[in-house]
Structure formats: structure tokens, C-alpha cells
Amino acid sequence: MIVGKFVAVVIIAYLLGAIPFGLIVSKLIAKIDISKHGSGSIGSTNVMRTLGIKAGALVGALDLAKAIGAVILAKTIIGDSVLLVAGFPFHWQVAQVIAALMVMAGHNWSVFIKFRGGKGVAVYFGSWLIIWPVGALFGGLIMLLIVLRTRYMSMGSISGALGILCLSIFLTIAYDFPPIYLIYSVVAAALIVYQHRENISRLQTGTESPIYGKGTNLKL
Fold first, then answer.
1. Would you say residue 162 lies in a domain?
2. Domain for residue 26, yes or no?
3. Would you tell me how many other CB atoms lie within 10 Å of the CB of residue 156?
4. DSSP symbol at 206
5. What domain range is 134 assigned to?
6. Number of domains in the chain
7. DSSP letter string, 56-120
8. Phi, then psi, of 210 in degrees rounded to 5
């Protein structure tokens, strides 16, 4: 029974993550396929660059919501049940991390659009809002400051994820921070860096597009 619950968490979280809100919103608002514009990502950043701040903010909020929903459902489904695997207890905290990773997998490689997708940043922060709100706020603040300083969303996203990772390492060593959360921060940060590999190359060559300012849809 408990194994079935964990399987349900995996499937539900992946399918929620796979909902391509960027594609849906861009088609409803502008009758375009966002995956054929800009970077080709269905995430909020590409939507924002292509259709403006309102559309991008809507997609970002929806992506946050699907991660929040998946993590909440994981705890609800597992409840107080515990599954022992090689002596390691799989409880609701583990289920939430599994759900968070599956949401990222679904968002990045959606079954609904031939395993294409976004870069997982919004869903990553959405999951932390439920699992560890302080971490989400800490990483979000770093991301915001970097974006305002550099105008590069990719640099801000990577910095935010790495900031959460560094904080997780410190709290795991110095305090009684759940190791499963450190594992999540490591795997998720690696995924985010991997998904931004082309952005990193453009940052190195000075050809990365800024998120706001001259020549963009955002003016700050």
C-alpha cells in the first residue's frame, strides 16, 4: 500500500509539472507557440521576453502553483506512513522531495510536448515555498539582486539555486537540517545549471540577452 502511495506521488507530480503553462498562455494570449520564439523555452522568462511582463508573470505564477500543489499533495498522500528501503525511512519529507524533483522533471521534459520544456527555476522555488520557505526567500532574494545588478535572468537563476545549496550545506553541518533537503538542493541545483548550459556559454561570450532594458519588452 505504501509503495503504491509513493508511485502515485511520482506520477501525479510529474504530470503536474508537465503541464506546459507557458505554451498554453502564449497560445491563448498571442496565438503563438512560445517554443518557436526566443530561446525556445516554455518558461516564464522566455514568455516575458516575447510577450511582456504580464504574460511572463502569469506563467511564473502558474508554474509556482503546480510545484506547490505537487508538494502539498505528496504530504497528504503519504501522511504518517513510512516505507523502509534498505533501512532508510521514506516518510513524507522524502515524498515531498521526490515530488519536487518530479515536478522539475515534468516541467523540463514534458510528455505533453515531446519531452521539451523549460528550465525548472520557477517550479524549483515553488517547491521550496512549501518545503522550506526560508530557503525559497533566501534564494529568491539572491536571484533578484543578481538580476537587478546584471540584467541576466540566467545568472540570477543559477545564483539563487547555488545560494540555497550553500545555505543547505551550512545548516546541515551546523544544525539539525534534514539531509534529504540537502540532497534535493544538490540535485536540483545541478539540474538548473545543466538546463542553463547554453546560457552559460552565451554569458562567457557576452552574447546572452538581458531580461530588461534597451531592446527588450521590460523597462525598469
1. yes
2. yes
3. 24
4. T
5. 2-205
6. 1
7. HHHHHHHHHHHHHHHHHHHHHHHTT--EEETTEEE-HHHHHHHHHHHHHHHHHSBGGGTTB---S
8. -75, 160
Cβ atoms within 10 A of the Cβ of 204, count? 9
In a domain, 90, yes or no: yes
| Domain-located, residue 171 | yes
pTM over 0.85: yes
Segment 79-97, tens digit of pLDDT: 988 887 766 788 899 999 9
How many residues comprise the chain? 220
Pairing of the two strands 88-90 and 83-85: antiparallel
Q: DSSP secondary structure string, 2-32?
A: HHHHHHHHHHHHHHHHH--HHHHHHHHHHS-
Q: What is the pLDDT of residues 135-179, one digit of tens each?
A: 999 999 999 999 999 999 999 999 999 999 999 999 999 998 999
Q: C-alpha grid cell for residue 152?
A: 541576466
